[in-house]
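Appendix C: a fully annotated inverse folding record. The material below is reproduced so that readers can follow the format used throughout the book. The structure is listed first as tokens, followed by the designed sequence.
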């Protein structure tokens, strides 16, 4: 079975390590909070500081009127071998050892002012102090600002509530042992410490009562009713303390002498002599240390359970953000390729429907392209006036004999050229969507988040490939349009010719026609030009339907299909040729992420070490 000193000393070391790593808060219960500690609570001028100095055996706390303790002081006591020099260390100054305790007092005051300024403000940021001495027991005490009832000059009106909320944030925790300090020369019913302890610990299981200033009570009175539990009973015995007098403080009477004087007071006191073995600061320190050891031992199963749960969570978090990268070039190349494949999987899921985005490409073909085709200015191009102009210009000085074939071809070529705009717009629209899906896929690839340089390299390579696919696609769709111009469907016009002219109101062989001889003196009647325009329009509608089906096929083949098949192929070839230094640069991580991984690794090491040490110390 472990000794009390080794178990409490281990808890002290673990709590200190937790503080260094910032593992003392956040969601859920931290390891720091799971480990029991003692919070010292009392009203201003209740003798709280004197009790702490008596327990430590050193005069080291700032003194003065009003609020002196304006930040929590986490005081960890470490017992060392007799004869060794005692010293103190602050967490904010880890490389400096204080052997002069007057300097400790000054450092506490300076560090308090560093956060709160010279004002009467308070802060919940704790000061961490460790004292190593042969005159202490292993113990962690938290000195909290003294409870007050009114704000004085220089303090905000909320100071009373602020202090109480800060104290509550410590004593409400189920693993906190409450050391309630009350002066004996005041009615216990008015004790701020007892009132607060009763609220947060109604059963009294976590509360130890301390009566200070027993020697300052009015003559003929004593505190036996309180100390013996008749006035206010606690689960643990009350302990009486005799503080150093102001005269002793002024004379710099050391705490060891003050302890001796305190023992003599109780041993010779007619009122408290029979309780002398259970009175005084030395007894209080031992009592708290024994109780703390008992509580720690009771909490070991739940502490180990919390540690195991946190280790699992930290391992999962490390897996999520990624383990450290190997330094050899082969492993780095493998990592880069695996990350690229992870990105490629996400990108393909967007295209194939596993993730949102690919449906927008279908929207280009089903909505954008048809809408653009409908807006083409065929009505203007095939108007009576333009048809007449084009056909006449095509005939030149020699009018056509049967049908204006050159006029037809010019009108058809001019109409087909309009299809190039919607075709190119479809290519650009799909290109934009693919670029956006690349950006989203990079952002959604969890494995890539830790490598901003590789993200940029993949984005640049993917966009370069998409540019090439877009150029190929544009050439292809423009070829489709040009194909329609280069060879017309002859059967369409032969069919028109065979159908003949079915207009009953006009006869092209009779210049006078049914409307009289003066209406058709031009070379071509309006009817013929309208008929030409209508025929061309019918042909263009057929071409439009063909291109409406073939353009999406070309775009998908040249852009979407190639993006799925070979988006990063060229990038893979380039990466395979790179030197180790360039591979390492590609895996250059976000400094914040590296810092986070380092902190998680340190916390993981702390928790594993704590589990092993608690197991070995508690049960051997």
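Designed amino acids, in order:
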């Amino acid at each position: 079975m472990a000794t009390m000193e080794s178990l409490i000393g281990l808890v002290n070391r673990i709590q200190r390590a937790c503080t260094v790593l910032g593992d003392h808060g956040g969601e859920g219960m931290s390891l720091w909070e799971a480990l029991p500690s003692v919070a010292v609570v009392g009203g201003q001028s209740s003798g709280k500081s004197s009790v702490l100095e008596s327990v430590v055996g050193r005069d080291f706390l700032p003194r003065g009127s009003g609020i002196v303790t304006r930040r929590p002081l986490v005081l960890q006591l470490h017992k060392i071998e007799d004869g060794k020099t005692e010293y103190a260390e602050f967490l904010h100054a880890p490389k400096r050892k204080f052997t002069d305790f007057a300097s400790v007092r000054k450092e506490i005051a300076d560090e308090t002012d560093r956060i709160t300024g010279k004002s009467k403000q308070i802060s919940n940021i704790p000061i961490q102090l460790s004292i190593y001495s042969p005159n202490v027991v292993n113990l962690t005490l938290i000195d909290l600002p003294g409870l007050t009832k009114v704000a004085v000059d220089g303090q905000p009106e909320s100071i009373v509530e602020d202090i109480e909320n800060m104290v509550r944030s410590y004593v409400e925790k189920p693993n906190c042992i409450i050391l309630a300090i009350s002066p004996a020369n005041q009615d216990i019913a008015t004790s701020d410490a007892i009132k607060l302890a009763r609220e947060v610990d109604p059963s009294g299981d976590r509360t130890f009562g301390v009566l200070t200033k027993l020697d300052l009570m009015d003559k003929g009175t004593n505190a036996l009713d309180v100390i013996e539990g008749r006035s206010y009973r606690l689960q643990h015995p009350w302990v009486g303390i005799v503080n150093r007098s102001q005269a002793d403080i002024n004379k710099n009477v050391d705490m060891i002498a003050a302890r001796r004087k305190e023992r003599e007071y109780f041993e010779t006191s007619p009122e408290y002599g029979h309780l002398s073995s259970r009175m005084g600061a030395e007894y209080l320190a031992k009592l708290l240390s024994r109780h703390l050891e008992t509580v720690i031992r009771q909490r070991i199963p739940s502490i180990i359970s919390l540690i195991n749960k946190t280790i699992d969570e930290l391992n999962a978090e490390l897996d999520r953000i990624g383990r450290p990268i190997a330094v050899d070039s082969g492993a780095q190349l493998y990592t880069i390729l695996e990350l690229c494949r992870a990105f490629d999987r996400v990108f393909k899921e967007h295209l194939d429907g596993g993730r949102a985005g690919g449906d927008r490409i279908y929207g280009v073909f089903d909505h954008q392209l048809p809408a653009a085709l409908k807006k083409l200015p065929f009505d203007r191009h095939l108007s009576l006036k333009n048809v007449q102009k084009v056909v006449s210009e095509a005939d030149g000085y020699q009018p056509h004999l049967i049908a204006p074939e050159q006029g037809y071809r010019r009108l058809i070529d001019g109409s087909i050229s309009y299809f190039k705009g919607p075709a190119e717009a479809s290519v650009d629209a799909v290109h934009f969507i693919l670029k956006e899906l690349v950006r989203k896929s990079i952002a959604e690839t969890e494995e890539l988040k830790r490598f901003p340089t590789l993200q940029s390299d993949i984005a640049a390579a993917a966009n370069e490939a998409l540019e090439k696919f877009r150029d190929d696609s544009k050439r292809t769709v423009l070829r489709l349009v040009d194909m329609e111009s280069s060879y017309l469907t002859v059967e369409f016009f032969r069919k028109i010719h065979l159908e003949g002219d079915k207009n009953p109101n006009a006869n092209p062989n009779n210049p006078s026609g049914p409307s009289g001889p003066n209406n058709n003196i031009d070379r071509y009647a309006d009817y013929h030009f309208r008929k030409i325009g209508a025929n061309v329009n019918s042909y263009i509608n057929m071409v439009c339907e063909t291109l409406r089906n073939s353009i999406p096929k070309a775009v998908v083949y040249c852009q979407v299909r190639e993006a799925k098949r070979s988006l990063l192929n060229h990038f893979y070839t380039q990466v395979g040729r790179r030197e180790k230094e360039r591979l390492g640069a590609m895996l250059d991580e976000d400094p914040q992420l590296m810092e986070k991984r380092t902190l998680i690794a340190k916390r993981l090491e702390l928790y594993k070490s704590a589990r092993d040490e608690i197991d070995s110390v508690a049960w051997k």
